[in-house]
Design a protein that fits this description.
The chain contains 6 helices and 7 strands. With 166 residues, the chain is of the alpha+beta class. It has a single domain, classed as Gcn5-related N-acetyltransferase (GNAT) (Aminopeptidase), CATH 3.40.630. Helix 3 packs antiparallel against helix 4. It is globular and about 45 Å long.
């Protein structure tokens, strides 16, 4: 296995209290002012979302997110600018009650897009009846801790990706 891929999966899972999430509206207002929209993807948007993920991230993530398009409702949120996908966040694609994967076009990072996508997706988990959510194989741990108060689940790596390491 590729060492970079191995490192990707040797990160812990995080636990988030969905009852203590910050409100989404302030994050959306700032983005709306920039012409950026955050919304749940529509089933017919699978191809442009997959293309975005393959271009900026990986085919594996595109495969994972494709599962979210078969959920009812779709469990993928997207960020758009001028009718183009610029970010995504998915939940309940790999496992129930799991957030991820998620990403924003690298040239647009730092604008709050990732935060808004994260909150929209986690709020959807809460609306589904969950009290706690799991962020699987969390890459930017500090971002999740700061943004939603996530905490590391001890002894959780490689988590659900264990089969990939054999």
């Amino acid at each position: 296995m590729n060492v970079g891929l191995l490192k990707l999966f040797l990160v812990p899972d995080l636990l988030v209290n969905l009852l203590k999430l910050p409100p989404l509206e302030p994050a959306l207002k700032g983005l709306n002012d920039q012409g950026i929209s955050i919304r749940r993807a529509q089933p017919f948007e699978l191809t442009p979302v997959r293309n975005f993920i393959e271009q900026h991230f990986s085919i594996g993530w595109a495969d994972e997110v494709s599962v979210g398009f078969s959920n009812k409702p779709v469990s993928v949120h997207i960020a758009t600018l001028e009718h183009k996908v610029i970010g995504f966040a998915a939940h309940e694609c790999t496992r129930r009650n799991f957030f991820g994967p998620a990403g924003v076009a690298p040239h647009l990072e730092g604008r709050g897009i990732g935060k808004a996508l994260l909150l929209a997706s986690l709020l959807s988990l809460r609306e589904s009846g969950y009290v706690y959510g799991i962020i699987g194989g969390a890459g930017p741990i500090r971002f999740y801790q700061k943004t939603v108060g996530a905490s590391v689940i001890g002894d959780s790596e490689p988590g659900i990706y264990t089969d990939l390491l054999k």
